[in-house]
Amino acid sequence: MSAESSGPEPGPLCPEHGQALSWFCCSERRPVCAACTGLGGRCRGHRVRRAEERAEELRNKIVDQCERLQFQSASITKYVAEVLPGKNQGAVSTASAARELVIQRLGLVRSLCESEEQRLLERVHGEEERAHQSILTQRVHWTEALQKLDAIRTSLVDMLTHLDDLQLIQKEQEIFERTEEAEGILDPQDSDKLNFNEKCIRSSLLTQLWVTAVLGSLSGTEDVRIDERTVSPFLQLSDDRRTLTFNAKKSKACADGPERFDHWPNALAATSFQAGLHTWMVNVQNSCAYKVGVALGQLPRKGSGNDSRLGHNAFSWVFSRYDQEFRFSHAGQHESLALLRCPAQLGVLLDLQAQELLFYEPASGTVLHTHHASFSGPLFPVFAVADQTISIIR
């Protein structure tokens, strides 16, 4: 018989037994021969199957996988052809609406800013005109007073130099009237009416917009830390010098010194500010009794009097909370503040160029209180706590 008419060549044989690999060992995951599965074979006791059964199983798996791939391809094709174009159109439409919303809102803000700018500039112009008119009125008044005084003086000098004794006596009534007229012209007194009133530019809208702009432009808050030498013995300072915890029992471990508050639960920061714009934040959510603000370095530290009590002297300006009551205090003057909610954090913004101290809520940027003052020296962040804990946020 010729080679062309011979049957298909036999497949690989078992290298160990030389027999056809007609079985599949499920344990070793490989084809084996009948001898491998028999007595003494390496696969005796293993779970085995006929090789053609295993092959048929794999063919069915391939068919199933091909069907799944076909369905997946159809799904992807449909997604690319139908969904993505819609998504693209939706993105274009949504972006256009968002763009219009930004332009609309910023246009409204711009219009409001321009309107407020015009209103405030008109107030500045009006206040400038008022002050100028007051100064002109005073100039006219005192020019006339000078002329009158000069005339009275000239008249009296003329009497003194040209009248004899009898004539001078006869002019006594006139001399009295002239003297009385001169005495009626009082010395000039300084008046606020002659000064430009800077309060004319105060605007809650401008302040809120300015705070929002400042907070958005600042790279971060100041790295404020407590000066441990100033910490009251009723307070415990954390290792990072940012957290103050109130203790009702006075600590005996604190060495007394000239910088330390010995009665009120106060503490000063280690850093002071004397120029520029500065902001820092304090976590106050755990305390129902605290004070946060600024103080001059000459703030007294000793005793239970108001001299060292924050907000009760001329050296300190503080925002305070006691239970549900909030207020701003300076020099013993207390201004109650109506807050809608208790702030979890309190921000302090100090603008030394404008001589302005401002307290705000960091979460919303809402201005809680603004105070204008003439600060006479470098200012230190100052803190007091009489309940739980407050922490400077960095």
Brief overview:
Pfam families: PRY (PF13765), SPRY (PF00622), zf-B_box (PF00643). The chain is an alpha+beta fold and 394 residues long.
Can you put this structure into words, describing what you see?
InterPro entries: B30.2/SPRY, B30.2/SPRY_sf, Butyrophylin_SPRY, ConA-like_dom_sf, PRY, SPRY_dom, TRIM/RBCC, Znf_B-box. It holds the Pfam family zf-B_box. The chain has five helices and 16 strands. The protein has helices at 34-37, 51-162, 165-170, 172-183, 204-217, and strands spanning 23-25, 30-32, 48-50, 235-237, 243-246, 266-268, 277-283, 289-296, 316-322, 325-330, 333-337, 345-351, 356-361, 366-372, 379-385, 389-393. α2 runs antiparallel to α4. It is α+β, with helices and mostly antiparallel strands and 394 residues long. A hairpin with a 2-residue loop joins β9 and β10 (325-330). It has a seven-stranded antiparallel beta sheet, covered by helices on one side.
Mean pLDDT: 91
* Arrangement of strands in the largest sheet: 4-5-16-7-12-13-14
Secondary structural class? alpha+beta
Which percent range describes the beta-strand content?
15-25%
Q: Would you list the SSEs in sequence order as H and E?
A: EEHEHHHHEEEEEEEEEEEEE
Domain B30.2/SPRY: 203-394
Keywords: Metal-binding, Zinc, Zinc-finger
Protein name: B box and SPRY domain-containing protein isoform X1
GO molecular function: zinc ion binding
